[in-house]
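Structure (tokenized):
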């Protein structure tokens, strides 16, 4: 295998990671706020109360600020597939590009169309049409997330394709298998509803800031009551889909699960470590196999092989997978050479060999079995931060609902809750980032699970050039983040009355 500069891989990964992390600071708030402001405008249309109109307009303004910055970072993220990961784009572009194309053509233009009506159509369209535009903006954002998450899930669990040795590309054979595989459905609800949780925390936190300042009390109380219920529903569904996602990871990505638990040696009836050596007996086996005595392989088991897998087959050692992968890589080279030489029998023999070993193709680019082990320390703590904060938010929303009843929250003895609510906003950001670390770092060293490692997906670039652009993006994204935070803080400081631009008689 051609030598790849490790620095090029590291800097390319770092550049993609920093772009994705900044992008995910904005996306969850967009997904959640679009639903919350839709609920509030629905109350306005139903009751005719202008209070709900002003309330919806305020959160729409914050949505718009956040949406604009999220689009900017998202576009840069997609361009990096062509610039930094050109081998990846060539190898699976026919499959990976399809959901991204649908997202751009359908969902993004749907958002762009109705968001214009939502912001500037108050005086120009009927209440019903404006309400529909608000909901369709939110639905468009969710559809956009669906297709992006379909593409991401396919990287975690590639299905519905066949490898064409003549073009050296994977080609889609079953669109519905790619678009609607169970892992994609689970990932969609888990990711999008985590955005609901973040937005609900944000709304409660901002509203508590108003209560702390004794401003816009009616607005703050109404926003807290809606956001707390909305957030609790989202949190419970996120917890359910998180459990389902864990089971799917255990079936399809056992190394990721072992790394998440820092499980070196597996076995039956495995307990789940919460933190600092505290374990819940049998829980990991229950989560992974749905039985208390189920077998969960550890990192060493996966590398050494020999255990019985869920489908009844015996797991191969990593060394054997690597050997078969090298056979597949060589068979591809032999096939292309035979085709070029016009040697049909040799080409057919090479094609048959490639077909027999194609499932191990990616392992042919792995240099050391230990390279198959992702960062256990980072994953172990990221997973616990994500789950711990998720449980905290369930309690947070329950408390907010309780304090919101009969307006208890305005009593001075509950002032401490205002500070808790404000502090939960950055914690919600941290939870989202931790979730994506679990998803993406846990997949390493694979760009596509078992199919293409990152060292074979990279573009032929100078590491210095990628390093330079990394810092350029870091500075630009930081400036964007500071600018967005400043604009949003100014909008929050002005309050909801300042956002009313619509005709009161509309």
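Design, position by position:
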């Amino acid at each position: 295998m051609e030598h790849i500069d490790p620095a090029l891989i590291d800097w390319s990964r770092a550049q993609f990671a920093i772009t994705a992390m900044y992008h995910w600071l904005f996306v969850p708030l967009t997904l959640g706020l679009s639903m919350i402001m839709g609920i509030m405008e629905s109350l306005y249309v139903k009751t005719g109360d202008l209070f709900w109109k002003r309330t919806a307009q305020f959160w729409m303004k914050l949505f718009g600020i956040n949406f604009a910055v999220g689009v900017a970072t998202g576009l840069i993220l997609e361009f990096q597939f062509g610039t930094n990961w050109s081998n990846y784009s060539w190898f699976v572009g026919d499959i990976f590009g399809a959901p991204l194309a649908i997202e751009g053509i359908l969902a993004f233009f749907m958002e762009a169309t109705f968001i214009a009506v939502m912001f500037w159509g108050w005086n120009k369209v009927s209440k019903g049409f404006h309400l529909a535009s608000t909901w369709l903006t939110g639905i468009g954002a969710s559809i956009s997330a669906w297709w992006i998450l379909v593409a991401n899930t396919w990287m975690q669990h590639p299905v519905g394709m066949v490898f064409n040795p003549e073009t050296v590309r994977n080609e889609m054979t079953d669109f519905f298998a790619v678009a609607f595989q169970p892992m994609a459905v689970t990932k969609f609800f888990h990711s999008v509803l985590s955005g609901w949780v973040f937005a609900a925390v944000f709304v409660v936190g901002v509203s508590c800031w108003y209560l702390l300042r004794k401003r816009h009390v009616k607005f703050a109380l109404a926003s807290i009551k809606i956001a707390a219920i909305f957030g609790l529903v989202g949190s419970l569904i996120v917890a359910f889909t998180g459990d389902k996602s864990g089971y799917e990871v255990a079936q399809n990505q056992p190394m990721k699960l072992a790394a998440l638990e820092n499980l070196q040696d597996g076995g039956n009836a495995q307990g789940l470590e919460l933190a600092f050596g505290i374990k819940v007996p049998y829980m990991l086996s229950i989560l992974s196999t749905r039985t208390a005595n189920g077998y969960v392989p550890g990192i060493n088991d996966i590398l050494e092989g020999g255990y019985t897998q869920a489908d009844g087959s015996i797991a191969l050692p990593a060394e054997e997978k690597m050997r078969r992968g090298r056979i597949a890589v060589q068979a591809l080279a032999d096939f292309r050479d035979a085709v070029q030489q016009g040697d049909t029998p040799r080409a057919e023999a090479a094609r048959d060999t490639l077909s027999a070993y194609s499932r191990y193709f990616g392992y042919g680019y792995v240099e050391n079995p230990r390279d198959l082990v992702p960062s256990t320390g980072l994953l172990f703590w990221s997973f616990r931060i994500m789950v711990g904060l998720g449980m905290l938010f369930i309690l947070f929303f329950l408390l907010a609902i309780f304090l919101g009843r009969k307006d208890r929250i305005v009593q001075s003895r509950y002032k401490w809750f205002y500070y808790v609510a404000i502090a939960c906003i950055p914690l919600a950001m941290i939870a989202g980032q931790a979730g994506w670390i679990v998803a993406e770092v846990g997949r390493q060293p694979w760009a596509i699970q078992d199919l293409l490692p990152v060292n074979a997906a990279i573009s032929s670039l100078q590491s210095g050039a990628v390093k330079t652009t990394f810092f350029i993006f870091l500075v630009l994204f930081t400036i964007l983040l500071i600018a967005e935070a400043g604009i949003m803080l100014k909008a929050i400081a002005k309050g909801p009355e300042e956002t009313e631009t619509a005709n009161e008689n509309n």
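Reviewer-requested clarification: Strands lie at 161-164, 169-172, 267-268, 272-275, 278-280, 295-296, 446-448, 452-453. The first strand starts at residue 161 and ends at 164.
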